[in-house]
Amino acid sequence: MNLVAKLTDRFWHYFFLNPVAWFLLLLLIVVVYENYKLNRQLDTVCDWIKSPDEFIDKPNNAYAKAQNICGDRLDSAAPSALSHSPRLTAAQ
Is the pLDDT of residue 68 over 60? Predict the structure, then answer.
């Protein structure tokens, strides 16, 4: 048995015996799932909000703040999603 296999076996042995590692793994899974749910909710909200043609420097209400957030999400989306963006077609 080579050294890498021995170290791997030892790592997994100690991992399975360590309750803190299990707790942190469970916590990581919960956080990733909650982040996924939050992003889906934000996508739903952004689908209902009309995106402004330009960025609002100092938004004065919650709707303008939401437009800025959704506009930033559209800018960071995949290139295929940008082709359907009203902001992109208005700039052309």
Answer: yes
